[in-house]
Write a structure and sequence with these properties.
The complex is a heterodimer of chains A (223) and B (317).
Chain A: H1 2-7, H2 13-30, E1 32-35, E2 46-50, H3 56-63, E3 73-78, H4 79-82, H5 86-95, E4 99-101, H6 115-122, E5 126-129, H7 147-154, E6 160-166, H8 168-171, E7 184-188, H9 199-216
Parallel strand pairs in A: 1-7, 2-5, 2-6, 3-4, 3-5
Antiparallel strand pairs in A: 6-7
Helix pairs in contact in A: 2-3, 7-9
Chain B: H1 2-36, H2 43-65, H3 67-88, H4 96-114, H5 118-121, H6 124-138, H7 146-170, H8 180-206, H9 221-242, H10 247-275, H11 290-312
Helix pairs in contact in B: 1-2, 1-8, 2-3, 3-4, 3-7, 4-6, 4-7, 6-7, 7-8, 7-11, 8-9, 8-10, 8-11, 9-10, 10-11
The chains are: A alpha/beta (223), B mainly alpha (317).
């Protein structure tokens, strides 16, 4: 599988998919409010981390990049979820350009799950991570898993850029199929200093950065 | 093509020339004057004027192509405005699905516009949806904040679907002037938006005495009256070109529409203040969101419509 990852997403179908389908749909069907767009990394290697509410989070994050820069942006996706059937796997790898990660051990021993992400960073790509590992309750951030800290420890020179996403938990929450047209928001933060010695402190720092960004976004819930 | 040429005759072409002239003057002030003086122009003003070009271009294109496209364009404006409104207001998460019903009000309302069914057009949002949506909200079984949820939802529908919908109904009124419904639509939109700009400019130049400092500190009596005078002149001058209005009717509208537009502007300011935002969104560079651009239009559209429906169309109905 490392081969299919380094081959990367489809060279022209993926930009076409984003230009013709994803961007118009996100813009007209939902609407985007982006804060600090200028902080978006133009070139890799970089790790972007965001909170996770919906499957559309990945599309939302990818649509923030210029079509030209999209080539090097690779979201991480769970192999056990997105790598099962042929069609889903093909879309995930070619249109979304995802790198499939083995989350669970197979038959007791498991290969290094972060190896494909490490390889992507070494190739100078921008890796998108959802360290919650799951979409969880709508609009509630769960504690981050340690994979991010492990990855950052291996590549301490690579900037870790936090992003807060808001809105998809209402517009298309987990388990719902009909989206409700509502604005979506993203706030991009400054890079969080890598801390190879203290994984916990680093994870907490990224969580705090995302919470601070989240506080910048409009909120309006009565319950 | 023939349809567009027919529309351009009967005064509409002349008014489009006037809009073009106004845009050129604005661009001259925002971009050329600073350049000639060897300074950088205000980026805020430049993006504002450029957005005016795009908005005016889209609007003119939509109304010129034909009645159906014109109605669809205003229907799309309603959708964007409602979406922006629903994104801003506080929500109960249980009401997620009810919002879809609120969106269904848009095609329903514009169906009556399209088929020219005035009776249904005027009653569907204020009466039937007013009764139906609280019923659907009740079915969620959650009573906490029930009144807040149903009130805010209906207020948004009245503003973005019912009030804005009046613009589209102008297009299906029987023509009493060669410019037809397109002439009426151009008239109210041009007068309202011109007044917004004229109020802003004269407020910036002479503004001193604030009208409602707690709600909208930028609004002054000097700006209001300056805008009113400029707009009244414009309203009287262009009325015979594209509308069946008499001089007196045009003069009354020239005084009424700026006042009503102002009321719409500050009312939406109060809403935004309540919600704690400066702009409704960042969709239009330099202007804010759709709601920021159509705030005055949501008030002038029904007032203009019912003025002409009663006084001008009254004898012909």
């Amino acid at each position: 599988m490392p081969d299919s990852d380094s081959a990367g997403p489809h060279p022209w179908l993926r930009p076409l998919f984003f230009a013709a389908v994803v961007r118009p749909a996100l813009l007209l069907g939902f609407g985007l409010g982006v804060r600090h767009r200028e902080r978006l990394p133009q070139t890799g290697p970089a790790i972007m981390v965001a909170n996770h509410n919906s499957h559309l989070d990945t599309l939302l994050l990818l649509s923030l990049f210029r079509l030209g820069a999209l080539r090097t942006v690779r979201p991480a996706a769970a192999a056990d979820y997105f790598g099962k059937s042929g069609a889903v796997r093909w879309i995930t790898q070619n249109l979304i350009g995802a790198i499939l990660i083995e989350r669970h051990a197979e038959g007791g021993r498991r290969a290094d799950p972060l190896a494909p992400l490490s390889a992507a960073l070494l190739r100078g790509e921008i890796v998108l991570l959802f360290p919650e590992g799951t979409r969880g309750k709508p609009e509630v951030r769960e504690a981050f898993k340690t994979g991010l800290a492990h990855l950052s420890r291996r590549h301490p020179e690579v900037p870790v850029i936090p992003v807060a996403l808001r809105g998809l938990g209402h517009a298309l929450p987990k388990g719902e199929w009909i989206p409700v047209p509502l604005n979506l928001y993203a706030a991009i933060g400054e890079a969080v200093e890598s801390d190879p010695k203290n994984k916990q402190a680093f994870t907490r720092a990224v969580e705090a950065a995302i919470d601070a960004l989240d506080a910048e976004l409009p909120t309006a819930v009565w319950d | 093509m023939q349809g567009i040429l027919d529309t351009l005759r009967g005064g509409v072409g002349l008014i489009l020339g006037l809009i073009l002239l106004l845009l050129l003057i604005a661009t001259f002030i925002s971009e050329l004057v600073p350049k000639l003086r060897g300074r950088a122009g205000s980026p805020e003003l430049i993006s504002r004027v450029r957005a005016w070009w795009v908005m005016a271009g889209l609007f003119v294109l939509a109304v010129l192509v034909g009645k159906r496209v014109g109605i669809a364009f205003i229907m799309f404006l309603s959708y964007l405005a409602l979406k922006e409104y629903l994104s801003l207001i506080p929500q109960r998460s249980a009401d997620r699905k009810v919002l879809l019903w609120a969106y269904l009000a848009i095609p329903l309302q514009y169906l009556w516009v399209f088929t020219g069914r005035y009776g249904m057009f005027i009653i569907i949002v204020p009466v039937y949806l007013f009764l139906l949506l609280p019923f659907r909200l009740m079915l969620t079984g959650i009573t906490q904040n029930f009144l807040r949820a149903s009130s805010t939802l209906h207020w948004g529908l009245m503003m973005t679907v019912f009030c804005l919908g009046h613009l589209a109904y102008l297009l299906v009124l029987p023509p009493l002037h060669p410019a037809g419904g397109v002439g009426l639509l151009l008239y109210v939109v041009l007068v309202t938006q011109f007044n917004d700009v004229a109020q802003y400019v004269s407020g910036k130049s002479f503004g001193k005495h604030k009208i409602v400092p707690q709600v909208s500190p930028g609004k002054t009596w000097e700006g209001f009256i300056g805008g009113l005078i400029c707009t009244a002149v414009l309203a009287v001058v262009i009325a015979p070109v594209i509308t069946p209005l008499s001089v007196w009717e045009a003069l009354i509208l020239g005084l009424l529409l700026p006042a009503v537009g102002f009321i719409g502007d500050v009312t939406m300011s109060a809403v935004k203040r309540d919600l704690g935002v400066k702009d409704a969104s960042s969709l239009i560079p330099g202007h804010g969101g759709i709601l920021d651009r159509v705030d005055s239009l949501m008030f002038t559209a029904p007032v203009f419509f019912h003025f002409i429906y009663y006084f001008v169309y009254g004898p012909y109905r």
